[in-house]
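Appendix B. Chain record.
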Amino acid sequence: MLFSGIIANSMNQPIQKEIINDFAKQTKTTIAGYVPRSLDVTRSELRGQTVVEHAPESEQAELYRELARSILHNDKKYVPAPLESEELKIWAESWSDILLKEREHEEEVKRSSIEGKGSSIEGKRSSIEGRTPVISEA
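Structure tokens predicted for this chain:
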């Protein structure tokens, strides 16, 4: 059986999920699972152990077991379509632009709230979120 899929590790921000979803779409693959970063991971790493060894009853350990079971019992076959170097570069740059605009917007909101204008800026939220870059097919 051939299983290809992305395991999105250390996922804590919504935009990270958007990026992974878009990458999976661009490469015609699937996502095996999203794994949030947790303190259990950090504690386990510091002890040189896996989460399942260090904190077997933790929510994070159960998430890893569920992920392993889903991969083991997967009956769908996917063959990813890797991006060429130039396509990957264009894709990464487009997301970089979105992330930079998002950061600029957050800084603008912070400055405005400090100046007492937070409510007017919040209402002007751009459509940066939810926007997915498009890579033209060559």
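Further analysis of this model is presented in Appendix C.
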